[in-house]
Amino acid sequence: SCGGQKKVEVDFIQDNIDNAVAQNTIQTDIIEKSGKILNPRTINKDGSISYIPIDDWCSGFFPGSMWLTYNLTGDQKWLPVAEKYTEALDTVKHLKWHHDVGFMIGCSYLNGYRMADKKEYKDVIIETAKSLSTRFRPNAGVIQSWDADRGWQGTRGWKCPVIIDNMMNLDLLFNVAKATGDNRYKDIAIKHAMTTMHNHFRPDYTCWHVVSYNSDGTVERKQTHQGKNDDSSWARGQAWAVYGYTACFRETNDSIFLNFAKDIADMIMDRVKTDDAIPYWDYDAPDIPNAPRDASAAAVTASALLELYAYTEDQSLSDAYIEYAENILKQLSSPDYLAKENENKGFILMHSVGSFPHDSDVDVPLNYADYYYLEALKRKRDIEKGL
Ligand code: GLY
Description:
There is one protein chain. By secondary structure, the chain is mainly alpha-helical. Helix content is 51%, strand content 8%. It is built from twelve helices and nine strands. A hairpin with a 4-residue loop joins strand 8 (352-355) and strand 9 (360-364). Helix 3 (78-87) runs antiparallel to helix 4, helix 4 runs antiparallel to helix 5 (122-133) and helix 5 (122-133) packs across helix 6. The structure holds glycine. Glycine (GLY) binds at residues 57, 165, 226, 236, 354.
């Protein structure tokens, strides 16, 4: 019956919230015992927890998971925890040497601002938007992702590299425009999204990972960094794309973004042919079916499609999005991907891939897989509640 099915869904959500609370409690207990404020990202090859500095692109996800846990449980006990790990990132607002501040401050401070009405976080998100905007290159109409002369990315000779992941940083700019009334941030975000739409995508709606621009704004090269090869479809990149354009529609109400997000969603549903809807780390990975899966790409996709579902008026399409997202969520919540309680060093999910070509974080838990899994659970919970 309908009521019976609803109870199954509600129980599914509650069981997985309970499990997440248990795992988060393990992680925060380990950190508390150290007497330090640490930020867990993954498990190292030697089995130890990898803690990251605050300028790592992943530093917002653990605080973000604490906000989601607070939201999902309503338990006041998680509020000071979320505040503490968020506020440890305060100086990130001044970081100007890479684009990821949108992820870092978006998942931490902006979530506190949105989910817990933390008005005092407003200055931090504004300062971060200012820092991110320094990377806007008007000739090309993009925010530059990486510096041309720094780190592993700096070895490739790109003049102005922009990666599809950068779509995820726009949400912060849109929200700062809303919070301040200063539409410069919104204009930059829209320009970046439109330029990326024109240059990053192939006719079949898959995308390149990296597009590098010349100083006159023309495209220099289209390549990959974390995918199998330049013309392959790196799984997480496709997930960032559908998530990013769905968020652009939310913030602008412009149907060009909605239609584009739908085209990408249709491509993902068509291309990911694994029996459990969890993609290989690259759609064109060698060694399929033995290539590692990327649970993080699946979690990002599930969360995106649960949002896209709500914006899709065509019933057969919206049904397809929610069914696909729910299938991912069920598979991630099965023993194939969900760690047993007390295992996995407190991380919720197993089997994600950071960067296969760099042999970095291959088939491991990752804090962003957990973050987007929790966000997808929240979105599903909100749909069940009619919110
Ligand atoms: N934004 C970096 C990654 O997705 O690996």
